[in-house]
Amino acid sequence: MAFADLREYLSYMNKNNKLIEIDSEVSTDLEIAEITRRATYNRLYPLLFTNVKGYPNWKVVSNIFYSIKGIYDVLQTNDLEGISKRFLEGFSEMPVTIIDKVRSLRDVLKLGKFTPRAKKPSFKESNLKLTDVPSLKTWPKDAGRFFTFSITITKDPESGVHNLSVYRIQVLDEERAIIHWQAFKRGSIAAMRYKEKGITKVPIVIINGVDPAIAFTAASPVPVGLDKYLFAGIMRGEGVEVTELDNGIMVPANAETVFEGYVDVNEVREEGPFGDHLGYYTPKDYFPTFHLTKSFSRDNPYFHVTSVGRPPLEDAWIGKGVERIFLPFTKMIVPELVDMNLPEYGVFTGVGIFSIKKYYPGQAKRAMMAIWGLGQLSLLKFIIIVDADVNVHDLNEVVFALSTRVDPQRDVMIVNSVLTDSLDFSTPSPPLGSKIGIDATRKFKEETGREWPEEVASDPSVAKKAEEIISQIKSRYPHV
Questions:
Q1: Is residue 385 part of a domain?
Q2: Which residue, 261, 289, 304, sits at the end of a domain?
Q3: I need a surface site. Which of 122, 144, 246, 411 has the fewest CB within 10 A?
Q4: In 272-380, at which residue ranges do the beta strands (DSSP E only) sit?
Q5: Chain segment 93-150, per-residue pLDDT in tens
Q6: CA distance to 26, 212, 399, 452, per residue, from 402 (Å)
């Protein structure tokens, strides 16, 4: 079942006793963000603030992605890998890239089930200004109020492909805001393509309050070239209902608020500081300015926010959802891949653990180089490759592999002067830094110069008898 909009999702959660209404008066200045963080840390259900100080006509929603179970609620399944597996089953051939694969399906099936469909909007034109929205100040030393889960929509000037991304947006005044899109993000790339065509005012739209499956897609590292509306349709199992604005950009027809405008690529302003998902304040830097030209709103709108900081918060659980959904896509590019783990405390782009079926010497290093070539995974600072029999989600098993199968000089690879997460302050010259890959697999003779030692294994009959005796002991001493 796909939710038509944010309101239908909230109704569903309320009927299932999974929505926490907070009617105490709360402020957008630090209070909502603090309550949200504590709720996420405690794995509480989504929060609905109904009494926001200074905003009597608004309700604020947060903590939608409260744990991996929150992802299950949003996508109405706990088989996240199955979403992409079912989609990929539609292909009879194995094109070179995922984009080729999607194009081949479009040629055959026209992707009718997943493509966006036109619908009359639920919102109407309004006099809403950027400062009229209950945006948050998240941390005490933040530069001001920010949109933290609003979605920025751009359209590639050549392909017409739409991109929906979650960038933090610092509100300056009624009609101006600063959009924090880093150089390698799809919004920034689209802007550069407009500039190459001599267009300095890039049309964009900022929306808020949609079906959370669309919000999840906007926060996901969908491969460049693939329209995010299409991918949102895959996540939902049906196409997104959209309406086209005067600037040619399609927006979800049931969005709560819509800000239409443009970014002037020649006009940048100092943004930040902002307490981000690494648990530190991001220093000030220069980013483009958004100018509001027209606004739309539903009656008595809802505003969707999040609060970031030290993990695991909502972004960590979004990352775990992305990990599961994108595993089949990643296996398509790296066929020896068995499983992957992007640990919650690895802040999504910090640490990745991957298991492979190893058939030949040097394969682990080959796999890590392939992974560093894949979208958001290219930003991983640490990659650990283990054998297929290692459970990548059991860190003790991973540590055992590191301790018994790694020679630091032979099995550790450091790559210098490559693209890293721009928010990673530990790098000397962001966004350029270094990465480390660790081969924690068993080694072939060609890799060590000698045969790998035989691993200990119990005698089967003795092991069976021992297990029977241990079971008897456990039944006699259940509390041991």
A1: yes
A2: 304
A3: 246
A4: 274-275, 281-282, 285-297, 302-304, 337-341, 351-356
A5: 444 444 455 454 444 344 577 888 899 999 999 999 999 999 999 999 999 999 999 9
A6: 48, 39, 5, 15
Question: Residue 202: helix, strand or coil by DSSP?
Answer: strand
- 130 vs 72: CA distance, rounded Å: 32
Residues 116 and 238 in one domain: yes
| Whether 114 and 152 share a structural domain | yes
**Helix, strand, coil percentages, rounded to 5, for the chain:** 30, 25, 40
For residue 439, give the H/E element and its range: strand 432-440
Domain membership flag for residue 213 = yes
pLDDT tens per residue across span 247-268: 999 999 999 999 999 999 889 9
Confidence of residue 90 (pLDDT cuts 50, 70, 90): low
Percent of the chain having pLDDT more than 90?
A: 69
Catalytic residue among 5, 142, 227, 276: 276
Q: Are residues 149 and 53 in the same domain?
A: yes
**Helix (H), strand (E) at residue 462:** helix 460-476
Answer yes or no: do 93 and 237 share one domain: yes
pLDDT of 429 above 70: yes
pLDDT at residue 217 is higher than 80: yes
What is the chain's mean pLDDT, rounded?
90
34 and 124 both lie in a single domain: yes
Give one DSSP letter per residue of 243-261, joined into a string. EE-TTS-EEETT-SEEEEE
DSSP per-residue string spanning 356-421? E---STTHHHHHHHHHTTSGGGGG-SEEEEEETTS-TT-HHHHHHHHHHH--HHHHEEEEEEEE--
Task: State how far the Cα of 50 lies from the Cα of 60, in Å rounded to an integer.
Answer: 7
Clarify whether residues 285 and 355 are in a common domain.
Answer: no
If one compares 422 and 28, the residue with the highest pLDDT of the two is: 28
At 90, list the tokens.
Answer: 């539609």
CATH number of the domain within which 206 lies: 2.30.110.10
Q: Which among 159, 165, 126 has a CA at the least distance from the CA of 147? A: 165
Tokens linked to 310: 């030290």
Domain that holds residue 384: 334-448
pTM of the shown model: 0.89
Order of strands, sheet of 241-244, starting from the edge strand that comes earlier in the sequence: 117-118, 241-244, 250-252
